Amino acid sequence: NVNQIKLAAAALNQTPLAWETNKAHILAAIDAARDAHVGILCLPELCITGYGCEDLFHSPGVVQTALDILGDIVPATRGIVVAIGLPVPYDHGLYDAAAFACNGKLLGIVGKQHLAGDGIHYEPRWFRRWSAGTVGEIVLAGNPFPLGDLIFDCSGVRIGFEICEDAWVPNRPGHLLAQRGVHVILNPSASHFAFGKQKVREQFVVEGSRAFGVSYVYANLLGNEAGRAIYDGGSMIASHGKLLACGERFSYADWQLTTAIVDIDITEPGPRKNLDHLDEVPLESGKTISMPINFPALIPEVVTTSGLALSGKKLDTSNGKDRLLSKEEEFAHAVALALFDYLRKSHSNGFVVSLSGGADSSAVALLVWLAVRLGVAELGEHGFLAKLGQNPSKANNSTPAGKGGWMHRLLTCVYQSTRNSSAATLHAARTVAELIGAEFLVFDVDELVQRYQSMVAAAIGRNLDWKTDDLALQNIQARARGPSVWLLANLRGALLLTTSNRSEAAVGYATMDGDTCGGLAPIAGIDKAFLRHWLRWMESTGLAGIGPLPELAVVNEQQPTAELRPSVCGQIDEDDLMPYDVLDAIERAAIRDKLLPIEVYTIVSAEFTQYDKRQLGEWIDRFYRLWCHNQWKRERYAPSFHLDDENLDPKTWCRFPILSGGYERELAALHEHLGGQSSSDRKSDSQGRN
Questions:
Q1: pLDDT digits (tens, 9 = 90+) for 57-83
Q2: 137's torsion region: left (phi>0), alpha (psi -120 to 50) or beta?
Q3: Helices 597-607 and 613-629 meet at what angle, rounded to 10?
Q4: Can you tell me the distance from the alpha carbon of 603 to that of 600, in angstroms, rounded to the nearest whole number?
């Protein structure tokens, strides 16, 4: 009989179809768990294949390879119980499943009962739901195994599953598992990062352990797995309504193990059977599969351990990051980790940023710097560079900043001036680059701009003028900056980062093939108002261990401007559009909440009482027109990171037709409500930047 047992959850940094790497991380976590005298280990959802395989889940070869890898892993589970996530084929369908291995043998496979099909998730495209209470049989390597709604009895410790989405629905499988007398519920998850989401996860883990009278083990993926989604780790163990252990979030390690000792007697539903006399694994005993195991002797401490597969070194990453961070901290940690993983998984040599000296490009450069600072703090300089595939000895010094240092090699910032650029933005750009130790280059592209204008003017037989050709003259400046930074990125084998934010994406206030140039858009998922707030926060407060960056005042004291019109025009972004806080409020109501213009007006007018109602109506009209007019731009944006439920990415979250009626009827109703001119009789006063 077992009274106490050590449980563990492993967060793994996996990559779709990176078979050997994924397997190495799994085996390393199993070895670490065995060394820590763990009895039951839960690995994340679909950890063999990677969660983000997309339509490759339809490939029979991919699924078969996952089963082959499972065959390699199962023998490594001697002396321990391990749950391993993978896709499993059955009856002409595919199931998101967790394989249950005990003491070197596969006992059975549990199917996920509820699929995530909203927002960023698309599971019903690839998988079928497993029906509660049903059990089938699958043949693997010539041997039959039970598949379905199973619980497992290992020497009297009864174990059941909720797989990710199963815990987010009202009719959680945990209710029936509790009735069937389980002691432990394992939750293999691939739960993407979103602001404030960790608190929700903690609630369902802790409440599940209390309501079901069990110990609950939650294991999550870690890092930027497939490009857009970020996984923050944060594995948890709770028992009887108390959170016992929580793994550090946003780790740069390949894997992280979180353990806690639980008292099985607390959750004991009744007299336990002594099953030590069983020598073989029965195929099925109702819906319970039984097998004896001698759980290891206990080591009393609760530990969090992480490791690097490259060196096999185990690192203590308990650097004080609290599991519940502020939005400012979560943004910094999430995007920094995502940039680091994107860099190494794309096999790029570094980053290039077109640094204008404004808020957006400065934020992107700072996030790259944070990726380095935070990664080095956890992995050490040599471990960080080795994980990037870089040779630390090639740097002239081992400091992150300074000319010749490796930060100088990883990030190149380019200021591209025209006759409309100001000394203030050049100074701000140079200050930011020097602050973070990046290489700083200045390109004067004004001659290129003038040659384009002269060539076109000669061809069409007239001069170009700001009064008649304002938008075109703005756009050519932005587009003339694209080829040079692309050339530089190609020469360096580096990843060009675009600097457009979500507010600009909503209204198309960006030049295609200009300031949208790049292979990755790290801030396209966040609004301008928060970015400006975050930069002020970084100036005055900053992350723990890094502190404030007062040098950012040169950025924060400026009004956002594209600097594409002559300086005498005094171009300000908010004059072209509307105040950013108003724009963001309209966007949330119109796009996230799917409200119509009159409904948006009701909400926005109550929030922004300082503005005239007709002015608010004009801004709402402008937003909807620009939103519809610029869907084609959002379709062409570089991949961005998912950060919250206000994402505008049409490939993963917010689908909208490229061609539409443009809300003409709805906008007419808004203007009629305001007693003004019908929108059907009006021409939009702003077309954004094309």
A1: 999 999 999 999 999 999 999 999 999
A2: beta
A3: 130
A4: 5
Enumerate residues 6+ apart whose C-beta is below 8 A from 301: none
pLDDT value of residue 311:
33
Closest CA to 445 of 417, 412, 465: 417
Q: Which residues contact 13 (CB under 8 A, 6 or more apart)?
A: 25, 221, 222, 223, 225, 253, 254, 255, 341
Nearest to 589 by CA among 600, 575, 578: 600
Band (17; pLDDT cuts 50, 70, 90):
very high
Q: Is 645 exposed, middle or buried (0-12, 13-18, 19+ CB in 10 A)?
A: middle
Q: What is the pLDDT of residue 407?
A: 86
Rounded CA-CA distance 215/238 in Å is 6
SS3 call for 266: helix
Cα separation of 27 and 40, whole Å? 14
Distance CA 498, CA 361 (A): 8
DSSP per-residue string spanning 11-50: EE---TT-HHHHHHHHHHHHHHHHHTT-SEEEPPTTTTT-
As a whole number of angstroms, the distance between CA 681 and CA 27 comes to 67
Token pair for 635: 């379709």
31 and 6 in contact (C-beta within 8 Å)? Answer: no
pLDDT above 60 for 533: yes
Question: Per-residue confidence at 2, pLDDT binned at 50, 70, 90?
Answer: low
| The overall pTM is greater than 0.85 | yes
Instruction: Give the tokens for residue 394.
Output: 């090639």
The per-residue DSSP string of 311-369 comes to: T--EE-------SS--HHHHHHHHHHHHHHHHHHHTT---EEEE--SSHHHHHHHHHHH
Q: Which of 577, 546, 510 is nearest to 360 (CA)?
A: 510
Dihedral in degrees, nearest 10, Cα atoms 357, 363, 365, 367: 170
- CA–CA gap between residue 127 and residue 251 (Å, rounded): 30
* Whole-number Cα distances in Å, 248 to 9, 26, 82, 225, 317: 12, 18, 21, 17, 8
| 343 contacts 495 by C-beta, under 8 angstroms | yes
Residues in the chain: 690
CB 340 within 8 A of CB 56: no
Helices (H), 493-596: 502-507, 528-540, 553-556, 573-576, 580-587
C-beta of residue 177 within 8 angstroms of C-beta of residue 211: no
Average pLDDT, the chain: 89
**Which tens digit of pLDDT belongs to each residue from 588-636?**
999 999 999 999 999 999 999 999 999 999 999 999 999 999 999 999 9
CA dist., res. 345 & res. 397, Å (int): 25
The DSSP bridge partners found for residue 90 are 93
Q: How far apart are CA 462 and CA 460, in angstroms?
A: 6
d(CA 133, CA 137): 14
Q: What distance lies between CA 492 and its chain's CA centroid?
A: 26
- What is the distance between the alpha carbons of residues 547 and 63, in angstroms, rounded to a whole number? 47
Q: Beta-carbon neighbour count of residue 216 at 10 Å?
A: 31
Q: Average pLDDT for residues 288-307, to the nearest whole number?
A: 75
Placement of tokens 């945990």 in the chain: 174
